[in-house]
Amino acid sequence: MVVGGLIATLVLASGARAQQLDCGGRFVENGMSIAQVLDLCGEPQQRTRSERTLTTGLLDSPGSEILTIPVEVWTYSPPGQFSRKVVFESGRVVKTETGGYADLPPQF
User: Fold this and answer.
1) What fold, for 2-101?
2) What ranges do the domains of the chain cover?
3) Residue 105: which pLDDT band, with cuts at 50, 70 and 90?
């Protein structure tokens, strides 16, 4: 039973690591700042800025607030590799995503 649990843990850990952006052997982690990612990976090929609106509490309840959070999505597109996106909210990494090959046209 212990061996099965250990294997499951290793598989889950390797899957989590595969979702992270690898910049020269160092990984982008959730919670990193924009400056840290820029230092680690350099300038992205594309930056997209937007905002996300959140409400604290119920909309009409006393003390509830509407918050606007800045969101940035950085895209790294190395030739011959899957593109990677880093999503920042309020200047901190909240997730990384894998896209398709950046240098191949879409197939229909």
Assistant:
1) Beta-lactamase Inhibitory Protein; Chain:B, domain 1 (3.30.1450)
2) 2-101
3) low
pTM value surpassing 0.85? no
First to last CA, the chain: 47
103 falls in which pLDDT band (50, 70, 90)?
A: low
CA distance 24 to 26: 6
Task: Look at the block and give the residue holding tokens 């593109």.
Answer: 83
Helix, strand, coil proportions of the chain in percent (round to 5)? 25, 45, 35
Instruction: Say how far apart CA 73 and CA 95 lie, in whole Å.
Output: 10
